[in-house]
Specification:
Layout: E1 4-5, H1 11-16, E2 22-27, H2 32-47, E3 53-58, H3 63-68, E4 76-81, E5 84-90, H4 95-101
Parallel strand pairs: 1-3, 2-3
Antiparallel strand pairs: 2-4, 4-5
Amino acid sequence: MATIEVNNENFNKEILESRMPVLLDFWASWCGPCKMMSPVIDDIAESMSTSIKVGKINIDECPELAEKYGVMSIPTFIVLKEGKETGRTVGVQSREEITKLI
């Protein structure tokens, strides 16, 4: 499964109501580290598609969601299980670090 572009309209359905754990990637188009992480996140979305859903949230388009989750720096990666936060990391991470978080 590819990553899902998450916005205010589909957040509840795609993320909070998901039966699978969710990895949220808070990013922006102008963010260099976000661009560096994008292929890693896309790879995780493909390789772990049977066990996790991956959503990307553009903080410029959805500042309310970034504020709701207290995102102060990007990229920020948050894992949600049954709508509750179970892990968080900020900045460039290795694939291994992200999968450990999951």
